[in-house]
Amino acid sequence: MHVPARIVASIVLAGSLLSGASAAFADSAVISSFPAAGTTLVCQSGTYMATAGSIKFVTQMGTSTSGNFHITGTATPRGVVLQDTSGSLYTPVGASWFGGNVNSQTGGQVMTSTDEFKIISHSGGVVGSVLQMFHVDSQGQVTVDKSTCQPPI
Fold first, then answer.
1. What confidence tens digit (pLDDT) does each residue in 105-127 have?
2. Which residues lie closer than 8 Å to 132 by C-beta, 6 or more apart?
3. 52 vs 61: CA distance, rounded Å
């Protein structure tokens, strides 16, 4: 599911704190989890709200020996149950991933984010999907969107 703004803000804060951290600490993965309940997916086929489960979030940040900063993160649903407005239940499968680098010599930055989720009915059919790729580099940005759903809010 798309990384919520509060998670992105936490990553930015963590990145600034890690700039003075030791390399051994900075290269360690940080694993966290937050409740998925209340997260909503609006799709062409309907609206789906998470009623149970959590989102597992794994980040890893570090600085290379040359001073370049690297960050990566993955968010995956764990036991998430979605419910539509008629009460039918669904399961989301997939992940959200991002990664980026900052070159300490040039200040150049590269950031990529991908979201790939499918909403599966309990009878087994796919009722919606989020398929987005966003890439930013020093030349601009590229966005690919083949979704039938908006990223979760």
1. 888 888 899 999 999 998 889 99
2. 2, 113, 114, 115, 116, 143, 144, 145, 146, 147, 151
3. 30
Return the structure tokens found at 153. Answer: 């809010």
**H helix and E strand count, the chain:** 2, 8
Residues 6+ apart with CB under 8 A from 88: 121, 122
The Cα 146–Cα 131 span in angstroms is 5
Q: At residue 27, does pLDDT exceed 50?
A: yes
3-state secondary structure of 39: coil
The CA distance from 76 to 146, in Å, is: 20
pTM: 0.75
Tokens of 41: 């997916």
Domain boundaries, the chain: 5-145
Write out the two tokens for 96.
Answer: 């959200």
